[in-house]
Each structure stands twice: as structure tokens, then as C-alpha cells.
Design a protein that fits this description.
Helix 9 packs antiparallel against helix 10. With 268 residues, the protein is mostly helical. It has eleven helices and two strands. The protein has a two-stranded antiparallel ribbon with strand order 1-2. A hairpin with a 2-residue loop joins strand 1 and strand 2. The protein is 66% helix and 3% strand. It folds into two domains: 167 residues, no CATH class; 77 residues, no CATH class.
């Protein structure tokens, strides 16, 4: 939800900027450049928000994401309030930092089923903040309107593709659906970073308890038959790990079984 709210805020900011440009409210190039940098700072927040999706720290992480957006937008604030009429001065490190943020957001989903959507969004973001990328000029360009429209359409197309995939795609075929299906949903929702962390923790438990299975990036990989005494325990272990990222209802909707969890030391 935090990432979705950041995405809504970024889309609303871009829509407001576009409306102001169309109405002639951003005729001053310096003001227009400052507003675009602020919009670009909001644009990287959804992907950064997902990097802090582990509960319960996900709430506090949003303050870090907000601070990141403020730091990125500082040159815009300086050009508006300290040096009015000047273009935002984004240094070389700041420009490469923006490239890194967009690249991290893309790489987090490039190997998942949301790879195409992530590529469209990252390409659109790069077009929208093109003036603040390395070796680019902050001066207005003659084809700005077309490039801005293309960038916005690419981002919107990425959102549509991701939404369509979520609605239309079938759950992955699996012999252990109570693990594979929610894992695939988590991987495609949060990206590769947390999916690989989940794989690492699950496999550590599986190795410790001697289960004949390992979790891979594409799902569970049983070394022997899918059924066995290890399966309910593996299901409970996966659920305990997945609950750090999603609610029980969310996991159930994405294919989790009804195998009850073993009680903890305090009886819960």
C-alpha cells in the first residue's frame, strides 16, 4: 500500500504539472525545470518504498523515502527560494544518483513476470527526467512536449500492463501450490530483492531441518516426491516468513493452504 500511495502521489504531481504547462502557468523555464525535478523526485519513490516492505519496519521506512525525495528536490528548492530565476543546479553525483535509483527500480523487477512493465516505467521515467541525467542539459528543448508525452505514456503503459497481468495471468503450475503461488505473487509484487531474501531464509530452515526441497527464484524445487512428512512443516515455515511482508488474507487469496501453524512458545 505505501508504494501504491507513492505512485498515486507521483501521478497526481505529473498530472498537475502537465495541466499547469498546458494552461501557460509554467512559462518561466527556471520554474518549469524546478517543478519537473520535484516531480521526478516523487517518481522514484514507489520503487524505493518497496525496498522497505518488510513488516513492521515498512511504516518507518516511508519517512526515509520522503527524506530521499526531499534531498533529490533540494536543487529545485534552492533555485526557487535562494536563487530565483536560475535553473536547478544538479551536480554530477546527483545526476548519476538519479540514474542509479531508476536502474534499481527496474532491476528489482526485470527478472520477474513484471519485467516488461518495469522496463516501460523506467524508460518513461528516464524521458521525464532527461534534463537531470548525466551529460544532459537543463535547458528547454524544442521537442519537449512530445518527449514528455511519450514519457508519460510509457509510464502509464507500464501500469496498464502490470494491472492486466495481475488480472489475467494464471497461477503458476506447481506440485506445491500452497508455497509456489503466494511466493510468485510476493516476488512479482515486491521484486527480486525481497524474493531472494525470502529464498535465503527458507532454504536455511530447510537445510537445518533436512527437508528434501529448496526454494528457488521460480518456486519450490523438491528433490524427491512432492508429498511427504516435511510438506506441512515447510508450508508453516514459508507462511511464517511470508507474514513479514503480507497479511494472512493476502497470502490466502494467492493460494496459501489452510495448514495450521504450529503453536509458538507462548501458545499462540
Amino acid at each position: 500500500m505505501p508504494a501504491a500511495l507513492w505512485a498515486l502521489a507521483a501521478a497526481a504531481a505529473l498530472a498537475a504539472e502537465t495541466g499547469c504547462r498546458a494552461a501557460g502557468g509554467l512559462a518561466d523555464p527556471a520554474t518549469a525545470a524546478a517543478v519537473r525535478l520535484a516531480v521526478g523526485a516523487l517518481g522514484v519513490c514507489p520503487a524505493m518504498s518497496l525496498l522497505g516492505a518488510k513488516r513492521p519496519q515498512h511504516g518507518v521506512w516511508q519517512f526515509i523515502v520522503a527524506a530521499l525525495a526531499v534531498v533529490i528536490a533540494l536543487p529545485a528548492a534552492a533555485s526557487t527560494f535562494v536563487r530565483p530565476g536560475t535553473m536547478p543546479d544538479v551536480g554530477v553525483l546527483g545526476r548519476w544518483f538519479l540514474v542509479g535509483l531508476v536502474a534499481v527500480g527496474w532491476m528489482n523487477f526485470a527478472a520477474t513476470r513484471r519485467g516488461v512493465a518495469a522496463t516501460l516505467v523506467a524508460s518513461g521515467q528516464a524521458l521525464l527526467i532527461r534534463h537531470y541525467l548525466p551529460f544532459a542539459s537543463s535547458a528547454p528543448d524544442p521537442g519537449a512536449a512530445w518527449l514528455d508525452a511519450t514519457g508519460a505514456c510509457l509510464v502509464a503503459a507500464g501500469a496498464v500492463v502490470a494491472a492486466a497481468q495481475t488480472v489475467l495471468e494464471r497461477p503458476p503450475a506447481s506440485v506445491v501450490p500452497e508455497i509456489d503461488r503466494p511466493f510468485a505473487a510476493l516476488r512479482d509484487t515486491l521484486g527480486a530483492a525481497w524474493a531472494l531474501r525470502l529464498v535465503e531464509r527458507f532454504n536455511a530452515v530447510a537445510s537445518e531441518r533436512g527437508w528434501p526441497c529448496r526454494l528457488g527464484f521460480r518456486g519450490l524445487e523438491p528433490a524427491t516426491a512432492a508429498d511427504g512428512p516435511w510438506r506441512p512443516a515447510a508450508d508453516r515455515a514459508f507462511r511464517a516468513l511470508a507474514r513479514r511482508f503480507a497479511t494472512a488474507d493476502w497470502l490466502r487469496r494467492h493460494g496459501e493452504s489452510d495448514v495450521p501453524m504450529a503453536p509458538t512458545a507462548d501458545g499462540r
